[in-house]
Amino acid sequence: MPGYWQWDARASSWVSGRYALPTANAEWQAPSWRPRSGGVVFVPGRWAVRVR
Questions:
Q1: What is the reported pTM?
Q2: Among 41, 45, 44, CA closest to 26
Q3: Is the Cα dihedral 16, 24, 28, 51 positive or negative?
Q4: Per-residue pLDDT of the chain (52 residues; tens, 9 = 90+)
Q5: Count of domains forming the chain
Q6: What range does the domain containing 29 cover?
């Protein structure tokens, strides 16, 4: 999982990446910024279970 910059309401800080084994029936969703209510919100990366 790669590292990323995160905003904490005062400044940006680097969050280090790390190695993680894949989880069965899951896929990695990378961190992203998404539009919300006239601004943007940070969505951390996570493992998401695949729905078949």
A1: 0.52
A2: 45
A3: negative
A4: 678 888 878 888 888 887 777 778 888 888 888 999 889 988 888 888 877 6
A5: 1
A6: 4-18+25-49
